[in-house]
């Protein structure tokens, strides 16, 4: 699993080189390779998130491990409009994951729309793309900072720089050159394309060297417990993106990130500053034995009272049903109330008392 994700990240470097070189020497080929590179950039962001998650044992282990920790204190001025981040809270974790994954699909859609001939919405698409990539970068950085101590044994900083440099450095470089072209520092569009792709051809060499150091093969070279695949099977495993589609469905469509779905058997109390503490209690979590054990209230115990929905009941727009006053119905009600008036009677459940029960006998009398 981890090796598959690492290979997906490493593929971006030669893809950058091929796209830049073909744009210089074979523009007709580069016109097809460049959109592919742009869409693969977004996939790399998600792949890096999946890599960090896999190194820590999965999403459930991350939430269980961080439960009870103090929320991350954000720096000023971010704290002015955003509360502290508690990654052990499943809804908060889901928001971070969605902010990362949305960039994959926004980038693909924006790239396809930009290929439409005669499109006049390039400015709008550029604004949408910038907002999307900013959210993804902030969410990925936030995820990395929240789990930096847990990721320390896996050397996350070189890996993070590899992804950040090749994706975001190239983006800001292209944006800077576009600004120079706007202010006529770079005269024409052909010069802009020439300078941008020439720089990337040299920079991909630096990126490749840094990726070798950030993702060394030696970590998996001498591990006999790892299985090996034939080349064809390995390629199919690496570029089969069924896991992406499944994860996208789980993140944006399903409702599996509730508090019940991420409940540990251990009775770990949330940090007092965590918003997850009150949210779990509202969802039905209860502690007992001075916090040493816990249990969940049944779902029907959390249903709202009748009076809370009374307004919606009386204001229904459904047509009123005709009330039947048939004699059989009235007789049935009378029988119901007659039985309910018996000893220990219940109007909601008409239990009848069997007066011919055998008399009570002790155990000794039954054995005699």
Automatic annotation (TrEMBL):
Taxonomic lineage of the native organism: Eukaryota, Fungi, Dikarya, Ascomycota, Saccharomycotina
Protein's UniProt name: Transmembrane protein 184
A UniProt-annotated Pfam family: Solute_trans_a
GO CC, any one term: membrane
Alphabetic keyword roster: Membrane, Transmembrane, Transmembrane helix
Transmembrane segments: 7-27, 39-57, 104-125, 131-149, 161-180, 192-212
Membrane topology: Multi-pass membrane protein
Signal peptide as annotated in the record: none
Subcellular location field: Membrane
Claim: Transmembrane is one of the keywords in the record: yes
